[in-house]
Write a structure and sequence with these properties.
transferase (chains A, B); Aspartate Aminotransferase, domain 2; globular; four-stranded antiparallel beta sheet; about 40% helix; PyrdxlP-dep_Trfase_major (chains A, B); 3 domains; PyrdxlP-dep_Trfase (chains A, B); homodimer; alpha/beta; Aspartate Aminotransferase, domain 1; about 500 residues
Chain lengths: ~500, ~500
């Protein structure tokens, strides 16, 4: 039954996606979407409760937010098991790019190339497929950030970051050795097998307070979001710099904020020049996302680039959550208009693929098999990312998101004026739909949102974080704004 | 063109897979397979060379072994771009389970459930899909190792191991604190945000010399295979125990080998009781695979289980490469007939999915969001693993692999007698097709194998490692044995 639904939906949607405006009136990208959320039961309803109890026997459900039926989910709307259909501005923790059951993605997912990629998964480093170059060039590399023309594919954001760290450590030691041609010493060869320096050196990656870069052991050592992410895990003794705490509205606190950013830059430089384990690279998010939607100005990031250049430290920009259009640019760091590109940019989530971009040929290690693993990414996911990129271009979704974001932000500003104690530190102006605000009763707001038909996520201690998909339009923004009005009235 | 081929092949193959024997004569599982390797050009041929040069512009090709055309690959045979078709006993570094372009997998890969899983990838911990319990129960959990009824899904072998380490560290600290109900102290809460003990404790995972457990920072700290895997990477100061160096043939060195295993067990216990960072868990492969196909007896592993039980250390069995049938048991550790199950068993590769199994409810952390990440596995891959399990059952492939392995081993024994200086330390008897031998001119043997139509891999410094798929049959073994005879004659 359920499996039929997706086919029918898909058939109905194929070629049905319309242009943005018809006679000046906004026309939906997904005509099959409901016009508004549908609420049939409490959430979770009886069918969901039964299914959750069943799942709990084999899978930890304590973090479960909502059990979904994706066959019935379409566009911006997520369906549950009880007939409820919610406007979804959380989008699988900022991961669904172009809508549930997107017909263009469905076409890619049901292509013979996809079938072969799924059932014949290659060890890409050893046995790449004949069209791997083409898949990269017409997909992932087509959207490579300016100045970066190489990609190393991975499987998730956390390992994408760790692979970037590995590239940084190899690069650093190569500089220290005096070049790619210098062979490893007998001491290095023996000590590394014993996890000791100099073969396994005491180098570090500097990250920022409240940053999030993943939960494997290397990435977790750079993650500084919450104790629940880190407790009980051995960690590398790596340094953290302060991330600016900006005051809102920005225009009222320009001088104070500039001082705060200057203080953070100074401290970052102090750590880089004095930390006991030399800093090979820094990693920074354009907007600290899990950590509570903390923004900084382009000047701050350009300042970081200057400091890293000055001290020959690499700069890794973690675009796992910010990348792929949501900020109104394809990559959030484009907002900085930085002269020198970052050394590496990592991606995952909305790409439905993962990895890191780089430009400098020295970041290709000096020997084969240094940066290597069995799968080295997944052609199936690369094919899907290509379809996502095509869909974004076809519907002009980055520009569209910039516009819708401005519209949504303006609406939230009005609500903030109406509920000054409920919507605090509204932020993300000019950053597409990558918008957040603080709420003194955040968890309650998120819970109530479901009762008015909207699925919203939080971040940090008290941020309401908006992460709509790129197909979020003004009429969806209107539904969301109305929902906030209802929630905050109560 | 190429995409048509896979459809045609698939259509031709559907329902064409035959039973094992017809009138006592072995009948191929894949009637569409060539009867023998096809050699048209040198490898790489002109078309491959051109494609490799193209790929090298955007992707590191120094580890490239062979560029493949998977649309034209079928069953045990891998095709390149120049019309060459090789018998593949390397199988994407031991990762292809039931043959290229397998029609049963193709059916799963082209199902509406798969399409939805691909285009609607959920954040499983927050928004699991309605049929996730069923997918687990009818798939991954159906083959759970004895004594383990829970699974945590992941994306690759390396992160599967790291997630198991995380479970071990949380478990250990919970014991030390006095139970799941004991809250974290203010000191733990503040120190963990600074990567310092006690919040980020100095606990360790003990692994074994020449073991391989992955290449992310935690897993790499337990990997002890080769310097090229570890060089320049900061590593945790974790201990390694010796792994037995057995002498072959086993029956001639029984006493010596038993002494060697006793020595290694003694040293393992000494480390566990004295190492400066308490050992939370040990991780061990049933056969050290990347490290050179190093085997140990069931008695050794049972001894390890006894030591770990005695000292309340967890035992993680890394079945990333040994799991899913190749040893003639679904899980290689079944060969041990161990009374107590291991605490955790990790998997990836042939499962085309990844994660770890566990049985003890205490290995579910005491709070939500402690063992968590955005994706927590991939329903698309879980669906594929279910199809693989069904195919293994339908064709009785585990038993089949045990039998074919015995046949292959007997043939290699004869060759070893014929070429006593070329085939050394033949090992893997009774371990299905998970067979290896040492070769004094290993790299040359692997290279020459292609000229006689066979794709073979190596491991460690000088092992020829055989990793046929589970659909490898006696007539394929004959081709492989004949190929070895040709190579070794030269």
């Amino acid at each position: 039954m359920a499996t039929e639904t997706v086919s029918n939906t898909a058939a109905g949607l194929t070629n049905a996606v319309k242009g943005l405006f018809v006679n000046g009136k906004e026309s939906p990208f997904f005509p099959e979407e409901p016009e508004a959320p549908i609420l049939k039961t409490e959430i979770p309803g009886p069918q969901s409760k039964e299914a959750i109890a069943h799942l709990d026997k084999v899978f930890d459900t304590r973090s479960l937010n909502m059990m979904a039926n994706y066959h019935n989910s379409v566009g911006n709307y997520i369906a549950d098991l009880d007939g409820n259909v919610l406007l979804d501005v959380y989008a699988q923790i900022a991961s669904i790019p172009v809508g549930y059951s997107n017909p263009s993605l469905l076409a890619a997912a049901t292509s013979p190339d996809m079938a072969s990629a799924l059932i014949n998964r290659p060890a890409l480093g050893n046995f790449p497929q004949h069209d791997w170059a083409e898949i990269l060039e017409t997909g992932i590399l087509k959207v490579a950030p300016k100045g970066l023309n190489q990609v190393f594919t991975a499987t998730a954001g956390s390992d994408a970051n760790e692979l970037a760290y590995k590239a940084a450590f190899m690069w650093r030691r190569q500089q220290e050795r005096g070049g790619a041609h210098v062979e490893w010493s007998p001491e290095e060869l023996s000590t590394t097998m014993n996890n000791q320096s100099p073969g396994s050196p005491n180098l570090s990656i500097m990250s920022f307070k409240s940053g999030f870069h993943g939960r494997l052991f290397g990435s977790l050592s750079t993650t500084r979001s919450k104790p629940v992410h880190k407790m009980d895990m051995p960690a590398f003794d790596w340094p953290q710099a302060p991330f600016p705490h900006l005051k809102y509205p920005l225009e009222k606190h320009a001088e104070e904020n500039a001082q705060e950013e200057a203080r953070c830059l100074e401290e970052a430089e102090r750590i880089i020049t004095t930390f006991h384990s030399p800093v090979a690279a820094i990693i920074v998010e354009p907007v600290q996302s899990e950590g509570g939607d903390n923004h900084a100005s382009p000047a701050f990031f350009i300042g970081l680039r200057d400091i890293t250049k000055k001290h020959k430290v690499l700069m890794i920009v973690d675009e796992v959550q910010t990348g792929v259009g949501a900020t109104g640019k394809f990559w959030a760091h484009e907002h900085w208009n930085m002269q020198d590109p970052p050394d590496m940019v990592t991606f995952s989530k909305k790409a439905q693929a993962a990895g890191y971009y780089f430009g400098n040929p020295d970041l290709r290690p000096n020997k084969a098999y240094r940066q290597f693993n069995t799968w080295m990414g997944d052609p199936a996911r690369a094919l899907l990312f290509r379809a996502i990129i095509n869909e974004i271009e076809r519907l002009n979704l980055v520009e569209q998101t910039a516009k819708t974001g401005d519209y949504l932000y303006a609406g939230l500003e009005k609500l903030a004026a109406k509920y000054p104690d409920e919507i605090l530190n509204l932020r993300g102006k000019g950053q597409g739909t990558f918008i957040a605000f603080d709420s003194p009763r955040r968890d309650d707001v998120l819970k109530k949102a479901k009762t008015v038909g909207v699925n919203i996520g939080g971040s940090g201690e008290r941020a309401v974080r908006l992460r709509p998909m790129l197909i979020f339009q003004k009429h969806h923004a209107d539904i969301l704004l109305e929902a906030f009005d209802k929630i905050l009235q109560s």
